[in-house]
Structures are given as structure tokens and as C-alpha cells.
């Protein structure tokens, strides 16, 4: 009899441990309160959300909001589903939690909580994106409408004015075309899976293509676009995307630089940080002698439609999407893009990409030129 009791007790302990393991594996928070609001069961997710908090010693208590909800359920005797904003255990925005509270026998209340913070963030980003797109499209479309009306009035009366209006229509149409093209590109990049079978891409080819594509906008402002770095570097990924990323960086540098300055493209092999992380990565840095970026704008310049200087950006025909595209291309290639800037001195954007180890080891000294203006 004593053996059976011990065996039953051991089985019960094992079952309890298994139940605890299962509950802690759940992403939803689960809490059961007794009739005095004392937690009799709580899983790891509930603690992480802050539904249950540690008091002095080993005792736990339910959050005030949870106790209030439990009292309402007991009095009403019906299941309640509410959305709560809970303060985070660490600093930051409140945690959005969808809570379902159910009345049990003996005055107990079971609570299930789902973290909806990320879902809300995504919904907010989508709303902001639609609002931004609508605003950005409204400007060139409105301009085209006004210019078309002015062109009709000036066709017979003032041929010179008609030509000016036609040129403006051409300019606004090109701007609208760039905006739509970049919106489509960004949408495609955001929906793309990581590159399944990256191909080796010659960094020299990327730089040569970028120099060719940016020759015209550079010449228009008497800006020299030069390149420095070793030959033979190779990264893995999609060549067209990587060219697009570097072109966007160079065009951005040209747009925000005064005339008769220099924009440089420098390629190198990263030595990594103090722990050796990212050692062997290929770096493509684009540096300008432009207006620089205010510290308050640094963390936001890769956001869609964000412009540190809206007036200048519109004057240069910028869409506010170029750097967002660069960021997504870098991410899709397992890399990242960083920026260092000093107001009135200039900015350096560095694209860091995983390298082919054998090629990185064979890299020539950085004094070797790949092309461009010496």
C-alpha cells in the first residue's frame, strides 16, 4: 500500500512537471487566480508579459489590471474579452495584450493573454504607408493637372510659355514614374524571401556599372565620382539588386552635395568588430562632402518617405524611398547598411555584405584602384 502511494505521488509529480513544461512552451500567457486573486498557476509567457509579478520574497501576485478584470468576471459570471495596454517590465512602449477571462468554479478565474503588439505595429505601418503613398502621389498628379490646364490656355497665346509648361509636365511625369517604380521595387523586396541560391557577384562589375549610371547626374553638378579599393572582391547575391543599392547611395550623395565636390566609392574587406564578428565581410562605402545629417535624423533616414530636408529632397526630385530600398536589399543579402555623418562635413554610407572567404583572403592591397577619377 505504501509503495502504491509513493508511486502515485511520483506519477503525479511527473504529470505536474510535464504540464508545467507544456504551459511554458506556449506563446500565449496563461494564468489561473483563486477566489482571493492569488495566482495558483502561471506560465512563462504570462510572467514575461507582466501579468504576474514577483513580490518580496518568492511570492507572486497578479497585475492590478488583471485582478480588476478577474473581479468583473466573477461578479458578472460571463466570459470577457478585452484588450489591455500593460507597462513593460523594461523601458519602452506599453505591451498590447488581447485578454480572455473565463469564470471557473470556486471563484477561480482563468486568463489567456495574447501579445498583439507586433500585429498593431504592422497595421500602423500599413496605415502610415497608405497615407504616405496617397500624399506623395497627390503632389505630382495635382501638378500635372494644373500644368495641363495652363498648357491648354497658352498653346495659342504664348508658345514660349507652352514649351515651359510642357517641360514641367515632362519633369513631373518622370518624378511620378520614379515614385511608382520605386514603390513597386520596395514592395517586391519586402515580400521577397531571402535569396535561395545566391550567385557570386564581382564587386568590380558593380562599381563600374554604378560609375556609368551616375556619370550624368554627377557631371550636371561638376561632381567627380571616384572609386578606390582592391580588385577581385566577390559577394554572394543578386547583381542587379546590389547595383541598385549602390546607385541609390551615390545618387543620394550627389543630390545632397554642393557643386564641384567629390563622391567616393571605396571597397574593402572588413576586419570585423572586437569579437571578430563580420570579419571577412565586403564593405562598399559611399562618402560625400555634402550637408551632412542631423543626429536626430540618423535613426530615421532608412524609413520609407522620411526626408531629413523635405524642401531640398523635393527640389532634387527625391521620392524618399531610395534609402529604404538600400536597407531591404542589404537585409535580403544577409548584410546591413550603416551611416556616419557630420553636419556641414559630409556622410559615409557603408554597405556590409557576406563575402566569399577565398576571395576575401586573396584581396589585393587597398591602394589598387578599380577605376574612376584618380
Task: Describe this protein's structure.
- The chain has 374 residues and is α+β, with helices and mostly antiparallel strands.
- Helices cover 47% and strands 21% of the residues.
- It contains 12 helices and 14 strands.
- The strands form 4 sheets. Strands 2-1-7-6-5 form a 5-stranded antiparallel sheet, sandwiched between helices. Strands 9-11-12-14-13 form a 5-stranded mixed sheet. A two-stranded antiparallel ribbon has the order 3-4.
- A hairpin with an 8-residue loop joins strand 5 (80-86) and strand 6 (95-103).
- Helix 5 packs parallel to helix 11.
- The radius of gyration is 30 Å and the shape is elongated.
- Residues 3-7 and 357-374 have low confidence and may be disordered.
- Keywords: ATP-binding, Cell membrane, Kinase, Membrane, Nucleotide-binding, Phosphoprotein, Transferase, Two-component regulatory system.
The best one-word shape is elongated
Q: Helix and strand string, N-terminal first?
A: HEEHEEHEEEHHEHHEEHEEHHHEEH
Indicate the low-confidence ranges by residue numbers.
3-7, 357-374
Q: Label the structural class.
A: alpha+beta
Let me know the average pLDDT. 78
The radius of gyration computed from the alpha-carbon positions, rounded to a whole number of angstroms, is 30 Å
Largest sheet: 5 strands, antiparallel
Number of strands: 14
> Oligomerization state of this entry?
single chain
How many helices? The count is: 12
